[in-house]
From TrEMBL:
One of its GO terms (molecular function) is DNA binding. This is Excisionase family DNA binding protein. Residues 17-64 form the Helix-turn-helix domain. InterPro entries: DNA-bd_dom_put_sf, HTH_17, SinI_DNA-bd. SUPFAM superfamilies: Putative DNA-binding domain. Pfam families: HTH_17.
Amino acid sequence: MVDERFVPPEWLGKPILRAEDLAPVLQMHVDDVYRMAKHGSIPSYKLGGRRLFRTQAIVEWLAGAQVEKAA
């Protein structure tokens, strides 16, 4: 279950995200999101030729990144 306190409002109700959804929240260019996903730095999966992101996995990944940053 996604903790809605940590989810940007535009992500609510979207189980799957695109790089274009992530880029503004991560404050990076869409190409950088794709590059990080390709290298396994961001959790993602490919469906056909598209790279997609599960909202739950991204929220957990962001929470983990914040914990590491605080340590």
